[in-house]
Amino acid sequence: MAQLELFSHPGPGVRYRAGLCSTAALGLLLLWALTYLPPLLVAYRSQGLWLKQSTYMEQPTVQFQYEVLLVAMTGADPGSFLAWSTFPAFNRLQEDQLRVPLISTREEDKNHDGKMDQLHFKLELPLQSTEQVLAVQLILTFSYQLHRMSTFVMQSMAFIQSSSPIPGSQLYVNGDLKLHQKQSLSHCGVDIRYNVSVINGTSPFASDYDLTNIIAAYQDRNVTTVLSDSNPVWLVGRAADVPFVINATIRFPVEVILYPLAPGFWEMIKFAWIQYCISCFPSASMVRLRISSTIVVVFLMIQTGFLLFMYARRSSFMPQSEEKPSRVHILILSSWRSGSSFVGQLFSQHPDVFYLMEPAWHVWVTMYQNSAKVLHMAVRDLVRSVFKCDMSVFDAYMPWKRNLSDLFQWAVSRALCSAPACDSFQRTDITNEMACKTLCGKYPFSKVEEACKTYSHIVLKEVRFFDLTVLYPLLTDLSLNLKIIHLVRDPRAVAKSREQSVKALARDNGIVLSTNGSKVEDSKYKVMQEICRSHVQIYETATQKPPRFLKDRYLMIRFEDLVQDPLSEIRDMYKFADLRLTPKLESWIYNITHGQGPGKKREAFKITSRDAVNVSQAWRNILSFHKIKKVQEVCKGAINMLGYKLLDSEKEQKDLSLDLVVPRRRNQFSWSSFNPKN
């Protein structure tokens, strides 16, 4: 019969044994149970076994959203104020009180860790000689993100307010954008409950722009940001015809983040084990028994199993990570006259794609007095809303009752010419712009949103982004699955093509060059210079030490490669976008790229059957060498970086056997092929 050693004496061979079922053995087991189990239960029931709350330090990722709302009081009367915002609907409500300021911003990464450390903001409000500023209220909005332990994304704001009985000339503000928590942040899953705009910029109602309502709604949040220690300095003595100036420096400091649950298994077990051992020690010290190692191991296994069981029970209540958005969002990023309409059609005709061509056209037409940089934020917000199939964003730019035909270039979208937007075509049909205009133009605008929600892929083509970093809030928006196709073309070919559309591009030229609404013909290639700079900036940002969230989400395509080998390049783009090339699309692509001639001047903005290779080389026969040299001077960096050869003489220009496109291996310009060690 098996026996259990109850006690041993350090003297010579004195041991006491008893059977496993004896009263002595049962008493020993009961004694051990009373020694170790009650402390475990006491520690657990007293709310002390598990780590309930903890903190860690992290510098947030903060980006200025370029959303501004300004109210400047010029007197004591209710109507004595000047106002302006980046929201067109708000500006329309102001009438005579609207005053457009000059704004400049600069974000600074002082320690070069990839996170912005502070924002320098300057606003110059023009005043008439009889006007004075007595008080200022200013709202700036930010994208605020935490990633280390708590994955938290929100749209936040900084509120600046200052006043004086003496009219001011300048206001200086220097403070920290501090996180304010009314509750702890969860350590797992993704928290995007506050990733909504602080200001409802699409609302036509004045109450939605009332500062008291905005601040009250903002304070109802459990997590906010507050501009603390701002130390405003109000300067007086403004000279006549000198603007009132606001200079603000807003720092983004390291924060102490409070979160409710232990971040992982080991920290929870570590904390629980310490609690248990401390509770267990006093009772264990009162019992001085010599027990065999086998019994000790058994009890340790029981204790460990109990802790694991309780951890599993607690983990079952933790929120799970959100799934990746099911829709795919593609942004075709390009410039005017670069073949982007053709690439847009390659996606538009696919039966799984909802496509819109340049929806931000409405922003630029409505706010043409502003610069492209100022309009970046409005364009980005419109693009975000369209990606989410929220077409109410167009209310700010088309406040009237509207049909499909009110949307810019709506008829080039197969999705708006087929069910459910229009009953005249099927989704699998290759639609024609003229037929669509005839049959579908009278359908209500609400069909746009209805149709958008039925597609798995949403593709937008835009030519109004000049900086890739402006899109970071969209790329880090966890509700979007955004990928970027960057389409480039030989700048000399772009310049030739732009000459066919001088009048059509004059207003856009003025916005690019910040002419306050004046139309400009780009005879000195200043717009071309800005376009080339933007392509270089976008490409360098995406390939030279890019942020992690850009991995596998950026693809650069050259128009010349596309027309030389259409099906191969299109398959690459479709693979990047998680689409499949159908036989009907293959046939249509062949026909559209193997027409006769380069196309007529009146077809500059239309997709017709042309000889695509002829189109890509047409500039060498039409553009004078003098103009070519001018373009090469302003776009030399882009020409070299994007893989084109410079021309040194008119003879080289006319020699069409000389290939000016540097060969590249497949996907050379994709993110995944980039090697930071090169």
TrEMBL record:
Residues 329-637 form the Sulfotransferase domain. GO terms for cellular component: Golgi membrane. It comes from the Eukaryota. Keywords: Carbohydrate metabolism, Glycoprotein, Golgi apparatus, Membrane, Signal-anchor, Transferase, Transmembrane, Transmembrane helix. The chain crosses the membrane at residues 16-37, 291-312. GO terms for molecular function: N-acetylglucosamine 6-O-sulfotransferase activity. Pfam families: Sulfotransfer_1, TM231. InterPro entries: Gal/GlcNAc/GalNAc_ST, P-loop_NTPase, Sulfotransferase_dom, TMEM231. Its main location: Golgi. GO terms for biological process: keratan sulfate proteoglycan biosynthetic process; N-acetylglucosamine metabolic process; sulfur compound metabolic process. It is found in: Golgi apparatus membrane. It is a single-pass type II membrane protein. Belongs to the sulfotransferase 1 family. Gal/GlcNAc/GalNAc subfamily. This is Sulfotransferase domain-containing protein. It comes from Mauremys mutica.
